[in-house]
């Protein structure tokens, strides 16, 4: 990253504003499709395990490309990276908007993701070098407010669009906004960077791609192929071996693509583990709640969006508050309280029924998002605070990579758990039918088995969150450490 940014006494507010707007629109799009998934399933004739790839692939591409951002941030200027990121995002939005078939829609989402993969680590790195540790919690809180406002309006806005227009309008709505942001960045971003002699290790890129891609493909395919399929466990094994090779290679490179020395700092390591565990548990809920509301309860997309709105708004506006509390008290107390709330609400979600009220769903989701607001940003910021400034690009890249990959694996794993449980219950209920299996009975069996699958997935999530809660008791307030890596 250009050292001129770090040397400025006054934070580069213009650069931060443009980056935040770009990150806002890309973050909005990451959750924009959740409410529309049932409509896409119906029109393009795909099942739940297939349609979840629209979310999973978005996170997968982020997980594959974000490791390269540590290298990119050090080599290129903010302006160069921003323009490339927004160009890719805009192109992907246009492709998805005109998709008539599911594979084309999936390609559009993946091109979008390749742009957003650059945006988030770039913004986080500029934030870290622009504010001192004492003010970083408050700065990250404002950052969280802006980015959390995206999912606050996303479900409601997308629900209204899907209810009144074709789901493709979601992309037609975003495309011109993305183009305007790209144009603003082209004319207003002026930072420059001295030429840096760095080369990307292509073999490392291949290893990380095969590693993360293999893991996710294996977990995602288990729902349709079964865990006994050679393709499922084969790709998981290949993914694990590739990642191990990737990690060993980074330790031997003079200029690693992704420096795993960041894990020598205990608070960063602990923060990473907590956020990974929490992401595995939480991301599935963002898919399961809309599916439950629309398929089981028959709630419209617009009503589903409105149901999720209070929680998202609460999460957004709590972000500056938790930022200030973090600066004053540290992250331990906030994380313990937040994870306790998440544990209770996740367990409550495992007891959904055909009679669960709209108000109960809204309250549970709001309480869960309230808990999230006290965990994610404080825990991540506390971990990053322990890193020396030279490690910021690697820390933000590692943080974002593992967030995306854990979220993707968590989504795939818990959707697989839901689907497996759903099939098992359907077989059991069908076997109990003594008379003729009419269409009405089949539909009732399908709904009851889906409900059972969703409840079971939330129950598994509860135990995963408990693991994160236990780890939160070991958090200590951190300050920047000295560089211990001899290569630096």
What form results from the Cα inertia axes?
Answer: globular
- In total, the number of strands is 0
- Measured by DSSP, the beta-strand proportion falls in under 5%
Radius of gyration, rounded?
A: 22 Å
Q: Give the number of domains.
A: 2
Can you write the helix and strand succession as a string?
Answer: HHHHHHHHHHHHHHHHHHH
CATH superfamily of the largest domain: MFS general substrate transporter like domains
CATH architecture of the largest domain: Up-down Bundle
Low-confidence stretches: none
Query: What is the CATH topology classification name of the largest domain?
Result: Growth Hormone, Chain: A
Cα(first) to Cα(last) distance is 15 Å
Provide the residue-averaged pLDDT.
82
Largest sheet: none
Subcellular location: Cell membrane
Transmembrane segments: 12-33, 53-74, 81-104, 110-129, 141-161, 167-188, 200-219, 231-248, 268-293, 305-326, 333-354, 456-475
Keywords: Cell membrane, Membrane, Transmembrane, Transmembrane helix, Transport
GO molecular function, one term: transmembrane transporter activity
List the helices and strands and how they pair.
Layout: H1 3-7, H2 13-32, H3 37-44, H4 48-51, H5 53-65, H6 69-75, H7 78-97, H8 102-130, H9 133-164, H10 169-188, H11 202-225, H12 230-252, H13 266-296, H14 301-329, H15 332-349, H16 358-373, H17 376-385, H18 392-432, H19 439-472
Helix pairs in contact: 2-7, 2-8, 2-9, 2-10, 5-8, 5-11, 5-18, 6-18, 7-8, 7-10, 8-18, 9-14, 9-17, 11-12, 11-18, 13-17, 13-18, 13-19, 14-16, 15-16, 15-19, 18-19
Organism: Oceanobacillus zhaokaii
Transmembrane segments: 12-33, 53-74, 81-104, 110-129, 141-161, 167-188, 200-219, 231-248, 268-293, 305-326, 333-354, 456-475
Main location: membrane
């Amino acid at each position: 990253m250009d050292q001129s940014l770090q040397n400025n006494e006054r934070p580069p507010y213009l650069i931060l504003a443009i980056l935040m707007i770009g990150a806002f629109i890309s973050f909005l799009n990451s959750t924009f499709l959740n409410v529309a998934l049932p409509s896409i399933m119906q029109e393009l004739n795909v099942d739940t395990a297939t349609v979840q790839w629209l979310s999973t692939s978005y996170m997968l591409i982020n997980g594959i490309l974000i490791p390269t951002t540590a290298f990119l941030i050090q080599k290129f200027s903010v302006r160069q990276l921003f323009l490339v990121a927004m160009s890719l995002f805009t192109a992907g939005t246009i492709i998805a908007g005109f998709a008539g078939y599911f594979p084309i829609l999936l390609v559009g989402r993946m091109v979008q993701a390749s742009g957003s993969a650059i945006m988030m680590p770039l913004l986080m790195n500029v934030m870290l070098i622009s504010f001192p540790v004492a003010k970083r919690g408050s700065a990250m809180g404002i950052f969280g407010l802006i980015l959390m406002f995206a999912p606050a309006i996303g479900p409601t806005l997308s629900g209204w669009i899907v209810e009144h227009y074709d789901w493709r309008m979601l992309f037609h709505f975003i495309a011109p906004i993305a183009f305007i942001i790209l144009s603003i960045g082209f004319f207003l971003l002026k930072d420059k960077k001295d030429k840096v002699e760095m080369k990307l290790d292509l073999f490392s890129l291949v290893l990380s791609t095969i590693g993360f891609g293999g893991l996710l493909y294996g977990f995602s395919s288990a729902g349709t192929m079964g865990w006994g399929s050679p393709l499922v466990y084969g790709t998981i094994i290949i993914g694990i071996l590739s990642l191990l090779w990737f990690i060993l290679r980074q330790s031997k490179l003079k200029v690693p693509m992704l420096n795993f020395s960041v894990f020598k700092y205990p608070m960063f390591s602990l923060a990473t583990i907590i956020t990974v565990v929490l992401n595995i548990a939480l991301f599935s809920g963002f898919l399961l709640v809309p599916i439950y509301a629309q398929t089981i309860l028959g709630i419209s997309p617009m009503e589903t969006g409105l149901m999720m709105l209070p929680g998202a708004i609460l999460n957004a506006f709590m972000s500056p508050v938790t930022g200030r509390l973090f600066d004053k008290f540290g992250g331990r107390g906030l994380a313990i309280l937040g994870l306790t709330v998440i544990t209770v609400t996740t367990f409550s979600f495992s007891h959904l029924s055909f009679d669960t009220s709209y108000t109960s769903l809204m309250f549970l989701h709001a309480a869960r998002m309230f808990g999230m607001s006290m965990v994610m940003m404080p825990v991540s910021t506390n971990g990053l605070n322990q890193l020396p400034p030279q490690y910021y690009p690697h820390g933000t890249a590692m943080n974002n990579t593992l967030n995306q990959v854990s979220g993707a694996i968590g989504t795939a794993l818990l959707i697989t758990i839901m689907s497996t449980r759903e099939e098992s219950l359907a077989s059991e209920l069908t076997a109990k039918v003594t008379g003729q299996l009419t269409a009405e009975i089949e539909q009732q069996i399908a709904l009851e088995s889906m409900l059972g699958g969703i409840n079971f997935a939330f129950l598994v999530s509860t135990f995963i969150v408990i693991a994160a809660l236990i780890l939160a008791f070991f958090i200590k307030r951190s300050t920047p450490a000295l560089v211990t890596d001899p290569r630096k």
